Every structure is written in C-alpha cells, then in structure tokens.
C-alpha cells in the first residue's frame, strides 16, 4: 500500500492539527537602541529600526506590549565615551534612565538590560584595553569584570528585571552574580550571552550602537565560528556553573546546530539572538523584490523555535507579532 503523508497536509486545518512548533508574540524579545537625544534617528543599515529617545523607547515598549510581546532588551548609546565606558555603570546613564522610565509606565513588561561596555568605550571594545607582549591591544579581562559587575548592579537598581552580560569575558557571570547578591538583588536573573561568536553578522549593530572597535578586533574574546561543539559546550557549562539563569546563542541563523546542542544538553531557558545582519539580509532581499518578507521572517523564527529556542531577540518582533495576530 502506498504511504500518503500528504493526507495530513491537505487543508489548513489538518496542517494546524499536526503542528509541533508554536510561534507567538510572547516568544519575542524586542530590542531597543536608546540614545541621549530627544529625536528618533533611523539606522541606515537596519531599515525600520531607529535609535530612540527615552520617551520614544517607552512608546516602543508600549507598542510591543500592546502586540502581546512581554519583554524588551535595551542597548544604550551615550553622548560621552571614555576608555573604561563609565557611562555604562553611571547611576544616571541612558539605560538606567530608560529602564526606570519603562518600568514606571509599563510595570508588567520585562525589561532586560544588555550588560556590556562596548557601546560606552571610546575604543569600542568590551572593557579597558591593555597591551599583550606582542604589542597588540586586547581587553583586560579581570579589570572588565569589576566594571561589568558595577554595570549590572546599577541596571538592577534602576529597575531592570534581567541583566544580560554580552562581553564574553571569562568569569563575567560569576562576578555579576556575586555583585548582584551582595547588593540585595538576589532576585534579578542573569541572561548570559553564553555562546557568542566573532561574527560578520554584527556589522549593522555596530553601526547602530557606534561600537565598532577602533583598534584590533574581538576575535580574542568572542568565539571562533569554526570552533565547533566542544567550545560551545565548555562556554555554556562555565556560565551554568557560575549561576546563569538563561543561556543564549548569538548569532542564531548560522548556529542552529549549536542552539539544538544546548537545548539537548542543558535544562535552562534558551535564548536565540536573531542578529542585525540576519535582519538586514532579509530587508535587502525584500527591497530587491527577491523574497516575501512575512513568509521569510516567520519561517526563520519558527526554525529557531524548532531548534530549541524558548525566546528570540529579533528586530522583526513588532512586524512578526502583527503578522501572527493577522493569522
């Protein structure tokens, strides 16, 4: 007898009945770039995305909430930068003020603060620089830990529900967990960028955040794209041991195998970051008339869910939420 799996795909109702993967607005985390200016500044390399004023970020967060999105993640662009990125941990820093403003207006929305220094340093790296014996510039790992811990505490004090360290410094999760606990923020989770690659897909983000390195690159602290499964598992295990509450894979699309590996290995909530370059590629193809935006985006996000993501940081969040509401 001929086997006929097409029977189960014949109608929309039959397809829906057999669906294994769900995609809803609650799976999305809406990223927001917040700067010190009172104007909205469109980002040329990311069509449809802007740098927002603090009041504009509040309105964006409200739009997300009204579409059923329950979480936002904040990235700050200060007016002034210095070698140590001091505006990252300033009590009146742009992310601290944005977190406070959003929580005041939308107390039920989950506010995640990106905890890094690269947007705040004048050299674009994720911590203070030092020179190697070869004369190359690199980040002073242990000096960065203290500043990242101070940043996380200031973000929690400002009202952030979750801190998300993205610097890829050795020991950052443990340093932040210790500092949060000592400051009375035992209840604040750490969303670790546990597996973060030195990826070409970050180009538009660096334009958006003004964080391109002025010397060297990040290959000595972000992961090698050809590093393989063992390096990914080692990085994730270290963060779990240090007290991470979430694990993240960044970027998502080129690393779905790693996402699936972490899902099969760990029982923590798993986040995929659908990064700026992935977003920009879709936008460029759509503008050229090569692809259908709605179908492409929803298929991509569904693939990340199928690989094991519990949540997805995506610049498509608002559009995707609207499309899902439309059915």
TrEMBL record:
Pathway this chain belongs to: Porphyrin-containing compound metabolism; protoporphyrin-IX biosynthesis; coproporphyrinogen-III from 5-aminolevulinate: step 1/4
Keyword Magnesium: no
Pfam families: ALAD
Family annotation (InterPro entries): ALAD (IPR001731), ALAD_AS (IPR030656), Aldolase_TIM (IPR013785)
Catalytically driven reaction(s): 2 5-aminolevulinate = porphobilinogen + 2 H2O + H(+)
Gene3D superfamilies in UniProt: Aldolase class I
Record's keyword terms, sorted: Heme biosynthesis, Lyase, Porphyrin biosynthesis
Record's keyword annotation contains Transport: no
Enzyme Commission code: 4.2.1.24
Subunit structure and binding partners: Homooctamer.
Family: Belongs to the ALAD family.
PANTHER family linked to this entry: DELTA-AMINOLEVULINIC ACID DEHYDRATASE
The protein's name in its UniProt record: Delta-aminolevulinic acid dehydratase
């Amino acid at each position: 007898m001929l086997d006929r799996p097409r029977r189960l795909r014949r109608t929309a109702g039959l397809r829906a009945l057999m669906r294994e993967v769900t995609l809803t607005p609650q799976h999305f985390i809406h990223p927001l770039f917040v700067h010190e200016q009172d104007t909205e500044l469109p980002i040329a390399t990311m069509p449809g995305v802007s740098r927002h004023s603090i009041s504009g970020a509040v309105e964006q967060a409200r739009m997300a909430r009204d579409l059923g999105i329950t979480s936002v993640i904040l990235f700050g662009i200060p007016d002034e930068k210095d070698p140590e990125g001091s505006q990252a941990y300033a009590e009146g820093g742009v992310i601290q003020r944005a977190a406070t403003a959003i929580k005041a207006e939308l107390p039920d929305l989950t506010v995640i603060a990106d905890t890094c220094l690269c947007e705040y340093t004048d050299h674009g790296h994720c911590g203070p620089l030092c020179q190697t014996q070869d004369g190359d510039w690199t980040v002073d790992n242990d000096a960065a830990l203290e500043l990242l811990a101070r940043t996380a505490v200031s973000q929690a004090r400002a009202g952030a529900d979750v801190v998300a360290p993205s610097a890829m410094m050795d020991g950052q999760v443990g340093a932040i967990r210790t500092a949060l606990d000592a400051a009375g923020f035992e209840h604040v989770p750490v969303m670790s960028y546990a597996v973060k690659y030195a990826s070409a897909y970050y180009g538009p983000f660096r334009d958006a955040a003004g964080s391109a390195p002025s010397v060297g690159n990040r290959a000595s602290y972000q992961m090698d794209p050809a590093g393989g499964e063992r390096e990914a598992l080692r990085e994730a295990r270290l963060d779990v041991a240090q007290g991470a509450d979430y694990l993240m894979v960044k970027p998502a699309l080129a690393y779905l195998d790693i996402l699936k590996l972490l899902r099969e290995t760990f029982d923590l909530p798993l986040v995929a970051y659908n990064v700026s370059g992935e977003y920009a590629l879709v936008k460029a193809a759509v503008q050229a008339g090569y692809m259908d935006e709605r179908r492409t985006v929803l298929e991509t996000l569904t693939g990340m869910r199928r690989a094991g993501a519990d949540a997805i940081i995506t610049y498509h969040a608002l559009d995707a939420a609207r499309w899902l509401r439309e059915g």
